[in-house]
User: Fold this.
Amino acid sequence: MFINDVYEILSDPVQRMVYDEIHGYAVTATNPFLDDSSPKDHVFVDEFACIGCKNCANVAPDIFEIEEDFGRARACNQRGNPDLLQQAVETCPVDCIYQTSAAQLSLLEDEMRRVERVNVALMLSGMGSGAVDVFRMARSRWEKRQAKVLNQARSRMMKRKSTDEEPSYWDNLWGKDNQYQKSEEEVQERAQRAAAAARRWREYSRRGVDKRPTFKLPDSSSSSRGDN
Assistant:
Protein backbone atom coordinates (compact mmCIF):
# COMPACT_ATOMS: atom_id res chain seq x y z
CA MET A 1 0.00 0.00 0.00
CA PHE A 2 1.27 3.46 -0.91
CA ILE A 3 0.98 5.04 2.55
CA ASN A 4 2.94 2.14 4.04
CA ASP A 5 5.71 2.73 1.47
CA VAL A 6 5.91 6.40 2.46
CA TYR A 7 6.00 5.53 6.15
CA GLU A 8 8.75 2.98 5.55
CA ILE A 9 10.91 5.54 3.75
CA LEU A 10 10.42 8.39 6.21
CA SER A 11 10.75 6.22 9.33
CA ASP A 12 14.03 4.66 8.18
CA PRO A 13 16.80 7.03 9.41
CA VAL A 14 19.12 6.27 6.49
CA GLN A 15 16.39 6.52 3.86
CA ARG A 16 15.15 9.73 5.46
CA MET A 17 18.66 11.18 5.30
CA VAL A 18 18.84 10.34 1.59
CA TYR A 19 15.43 11.94 1.05
CA ASP A 20 16.48 15.08 2.93
CA GLU A 21 19.72 15.28 0.93
CA ILE A 22 17.87 14.97 -2.38
CA HIS A 23 15.19 17.51 -1.58
CA GLY A 24 17.40 20.10 0.10
CA TYR A 25 16.27 19.59 3.68
CA ALA A 26 19.80 18.78 4.86
CA VAL A 27 22.50 21.37 5.51
CA THR A 28 25.01 19.24 3.58
CA ALA A 29 22.73 18.74 0.57
CA THR A 30 24.04 19.20 -2.97
CA ASN A 31 21.72 20.38 -5.72
CA PRO A 32 21.09 17.24 -7.85
CA PHE A 33 20.93 19.41 -10.97
CA LEU A 34 24.51 20.53 -10.35
CA ASP A 35 25.82 17.08 -9.40
CA ASP A 36 27.40 15.27 -12.35
CA SER A 37 28.63 12.34 -10.27
CA SER A 38 25.33 10.43 -10.27
CA PRO A 39 24.54 8.23 -13.29
CA LYS A 40 21.71 9.42 -15.50
CA ASP A 41 19.97 6.07 -15.66
CA HIS A 42 16.37 7.27 -15.30
CA VAL A 43 14.03 8.73 -17.89
CA PHE A 44 11.71 11.72 -17.59
CA VAL A 45 9.18 13.09 -20.09
CA ASP A 46 8.60 16.83 -20.05
CA GLU A 47 4.85 16.66 -20.47
CA PHE A 48 4.57 20.40 -21.07
CA ALA A 49 6.57 19.98 -24.28
CA CYS A 50 5.07 16.61 -25.28
CA ILE A 51 2.63 16.81 -28.20
CA GLY A 52 1.18 13.33 -27.75
CA CYS A 53 2.51 11.95 -31.03
CA LYS A 54 2.88 8.46 -29.48
CA ASN A 55 6.25 7.93 -31.16
CA CYS A 56 8.00 6.92 -27.94
CA ALA A 57 5.18 4.57 -26.92
CA ASN A 58 5.40 2.87 -30.31
CA VAL A 59 9.20 2.65 -30.29
CA ALA A 60 9.60 1.56 -26.65
CA PRO A 61 6.22 0.34 -25.36
CA ASP A 62 7.88 -1.29 -22.35
CA ILE A 63 9.04 2.14 -21.14
CA PHE A 64 6.46 4.70 -22.28
CA GLU A 65 2.70 4.93 -22.18
CA ILE A 66 0.19 7.63 -23.11
CA GLU A 67 -1.87 9.11 -20.29
CA GLU A 68 -5.60 8.85 -20.79
CA ASP A 69 -6.45 12.16 -19.12
CA PHE A 70 -3.95 14.43 -20.84
CA GLY A 71 -2.85 12.49 -23.93
CA ARG A 72 0.84 12.89 -23.16
CA ALA A 73 3.63 10.38 -22.82
CA ARG A 74 4.95 9.22 -19.46
CA ALA A 75 7.74 6.88 -18.46
CA CYS A 76 6.02 3.92 -16.83
CA ASN A 77 9.13 1.75 -16.45
CA GLN A 78 12.67 2.77 -15.54
CA ARG A 79 14.21 -0.58 -16.44
CA GLY A 80 13.23 -1.03 -20.07
CA ASN A 81 15.32 -1.84 -23.14
CA PRO A 82 18.14 0.77 -23.24
CA ASP A 83 18.52 0.54 -27.02
CA LEU A 84 14.84 1.26 -27.58
CA LEU A 85 15.01 4.07 -25.03
CA GLN A 86 17.87 5.70 -26.91
CA GLN A 87 15.96 5.34 -30.16
CA ALA A 88 12.90 6.98 -28.61
CA VAL A 89 15.02 9.86 -27.30
CA GLU A 90 16.66 10.42 -30.67
CA THR A 91 13.42 10.27 -32.67
CA CYS A 92 11.24 12.41 -30.39
CA PRO A 93 10.07 15.26 -32.66
CA VAL A 94 10.04 17.83 -29.85
CA ASP A 95 13.00 16.55 -27.76
CA CYS A 96 10.95 16.22 -24.59
CA ILE A 97 12.53 12.99 -23.28
CA TYR A 98 15.40 13.39 -20.83
CA GLN A 99 17.73 10.95 -19.13
CA THR A 100 18.20 12.03 -15.52
CA SER A 101 19.64 10.80 -12.26
CA ALA A 102 17.32 9.23 -9.70
CA ALA A 103 17.63 12.32 -7.50
CA GLN A 104 16.74 14.66 -10.36
CA LEU A 105 13.76 12.51 -11.27
CA SER A 106 12.48 12.64 -7.69
CA LEU A 107 12.52 16.45 -7.77
CA LEU A 108 10.97 16.66 -11.23
CA GLU A 109 8.13 14.28 -10.39
CA ASP A 110 7.46 16.20 -7.19
CA GLU A 111 7.27 19.43 -9.19
CA MET A 112 5.02 17.96 -11.88
CA ARG A 113 2.29 17.14 -9.37
CA ARG A 114 2.13 20.81 -8.36
CA VAL A 115 1.46 22.20 -11.84
CA GLU A 116 -1.91 22.30 -13.53
CA ARG A 117 -2.06 20.57 -16.91
CA VAL A 118 -4.52 20.50 -19.79
CA ASN A 119 -5.21 17.90 -22.44
CA VAL A 120 -2.66 17.97 -25.24
CA ALA A 121 -5.39 18.71 -27.80
CA LEU A 122 -6.38 21.84 -25.87
CA MET A 123 -2.73 22.84 -25.55
CA LEU A 124 -2.17 22.54 -29.30
CA SER A 125 -5.27 24.65 -29.90
CA GLY A 126 -3.79 27.43 -27.78
CA MET A 127 -5.39 26.85 -24.38
CA GLY A 128 -2.97 26.68 -21.47
CA SER A 129 -0.05 27.07 -23.81
CA GLY A 130 2.09 29.18 -21.50
CA ALA A 131 5.68 27.99 -21.44
CA VAL A 132 6.47 25.94 -18.33
CA ASP A 133 10.07 25.03 -17.55
CA VAL A 134 9.70 22.23 -15.02
CA PHE A 135 13.49 21.89 -14.68
CA ARG A 136 13.84 25.55 -13.72
CA MET A 137 10.92 25.29 -11.31
CA ALA A 138 12.37 22.18 -9.63
CA ARG A 139 15.81 23.82 -9.30
CA SER A 140 14.28 27.00 -7.91
CA ARG A 141 12.20 25.13 -5.33
CA TRP A 142 15.28 23.18 -4.21
CA GLU A 143 17.34 26.37 -3.87
CA LYS A 144 14.64 28.14 -1.84
CA ARG A 145 14.24 25.11 0.42
CA GLN A 146 17.99 24.83 0.92
CA ALA A 147 18.33 28.56 1.65
CA LYS A 148 15.66 28.27 4.34
CA VAL A 149 17.42 25.28 5.91
CA LEU A 150 20.77 27.09 5.94
CA ASN A 151 19.23 30.19 7.50
CA GLN A 152 17.64 28.07 10.22
CA ALA A 153 20.96 26.33 10.85
CA ARG A 154 22.76 29.68 11.17
CA SER A 155 20.12 30.90 13.61
CA ARG A 156 20.50 27.79 15.76
CA MET A 157 24.28 28.13 15.76
CA MET A 158 24.13 31.79 16.78
CA LYS A 159 21.66 31.00 19.54
CA ARG A 160 23.81 28.15 20.80
CA LYS A 161 26.95 30.32 20.81
CA SER A 162 25.21 33.09 22.73
CA THR A 163 23.79 30.74 25.38
CA ASP A 164 26.51 28.03 25.46
CA GLU A 165 23.67 25.57 24.97
CA GLU A 166 24.53 21.91 24.64
CA PRO A 167 23.23 20.02 21.57
CA SER A 168 19.88 18.44 22.35
CA TYR A 169 18.54 15.06 21.36
CA TRP A 170 16.55 16.65 18.54
CA ASP A 171 19.65 18.34 17.10
CA ASN A 172 21.17 14.91 16.61
CA LEU A 173 18.02 13.00 15.79
CA TRP A 174 19.62 11.02 12.95
CA GLY A 175 22.85 10.30 14.81
CA LYS A 176 26.41 11.09 13.84
CA ASP A 177 27.29 11.29 10.16
CA ASN A 178 29.53 8.24 10.17
CA GLN A 179 26.83 6.23 11.89
CA TYR A 180 24.88 6.06 8.64
CA GLN A 181 27.65 5.95 6.06
CA LYS A 182 26.75 3.56 3.26
CA SER A 183 28.30 2.33 0.06
CA GLU A 184 27.73 4.14 -3.24
CA GLU A 185 25.51 1.28 -4.41
CA GLU A 186 23.28 1.60 -1.35
CA VAL A 187 23.02 5.37 -1.79
CA GLN A 188 21.97 4.92 -5.42
CA GLU A 189 19.45 2.25 -4.48
CA ARG A 190 17.89 4.51 -1.86
CA ALA A 191 17.79 7.43 -4.31
CA GLN A 192 15.93 5.17 -6.74
CA ARG A 193 13.43 4.31 -4.02
CA ALA A 194 12.90 8.01 -3.36
CA ALA A 195 12.33 8.63 -7.08
CA ALA A 196 9.85 5.76 -7.27
CA ALA A 197 8.00 7.12 -4.24
CA ALA A 198 7.81 10.55 -5.88
CA ARG A 199 6.33 9.04 -9.03
CA ARG A 200 3.72 7.15 -7.04
CA TRP A 201 2.90 10.21 -4.97
CA ARG A 202 2.37 12.17 -8.16
CA GLU A 203 -0.03 9.51 -9.45
CA TYR A 204 -1.80 9.60 -6.07
CA SER A 205 -2.10 13.39 -6.38
CA ARG A 206 -3.27 13.27 -10.00
CA ARG A 207 -6.32 11.27 -9.00
CA GLY A 208 -7.50 14.14 -6.85
CA VAL A 209 -6.72 12.52 -3.50
CA ASP A 210 -4.09 15.12 -2.70
CA LYS A 211 -4.55 18.90 -2.82
CA ARG A 212 -5.11 20.59 -6.17
CA PRO A 213 -2.15 21.91 -8.20
CA THR A 214 -0.75 25.15 -6.80
CA PHE A 215 0.62 26.48 -10.09
CA LYS A 216 -2.03 27.51 -12.61
CA LEU A 217 -1.24 27.73 -16.29
CA PRO A 218 -1.97 31.12 -17.86
CA ASP A 219 -5.23 31.40 -19.77
CA SER A 220 -4.28 32.18 -23.35
CA SER A 221 -7.64 33.82 -24.03
CA SER A 222 -7.32 36.20 -21.09
CA SER A 223 -3.70 37.01 -21.93
CA SER A 224 -4.65 37.79 -25.52
CA ARG A 225 -7.40 40.13 -24.30
CA GLY A 226 -4.87 41.88 -22.12
CA ASP A 227 -2.61 42.46 -25.10
CA ASN A 228 -5.36 44.24 -27.02
Summary: The beta strands are 42-45, 64-66, 73-75, 97-100. The chain has nine helices and four strands. The radius of gyration is 20 Å.
